[in-house]
């Protein structure tokens, strides 16, 4: 949760890890579409986790990590958090688009989300990988059945999760923009 000091680092990383842990469900559907995202998110979680582990009291919020690394040469956790944020924005937007348009396939929702979030940061090779990966997204019906069914309860729970995630991502966006902490990363 968000406190007066900021976003609790451990809880944010636990939630991000939980989201990544759910991605194997897609693997079971025979889709490798999210493998690059899963790998990237996991690596960036590890970078922020290493910083937290170095001093759990000092780095108990994400904001404290970014502020502590500002102006230093080693901004590993700040960079990891930036890319973690971007990967989660892609995921949140793709799910949000798919939930709001119940006839749209995942490949369309996530392709549009990629265009709006990550594409601007990738070179032509990575763009090609993502383009192919989005074509390999599971079918909508298979995806939602794997989550527990294509029904209002699953949609409702997923929407609550996406909205909560988006609130935290918005706070991180404000932090990074306010201090230009993403420059040079």
TrEMBL record:
Pfam families: GLTP (PF08718)
Domain Glycolipid transfer protein intervals: 7-148
Keyword annotations: Transport
Provenance organism: Linderina pennispora
A GO MF label: ceramide 1-phosphate transfer activity
Superkingdom, natural source: Eukaryota
UniProt protein name: Glycolipid transfer protein
Entry's Gene Ontology cellular component terms: cytosol; membrane
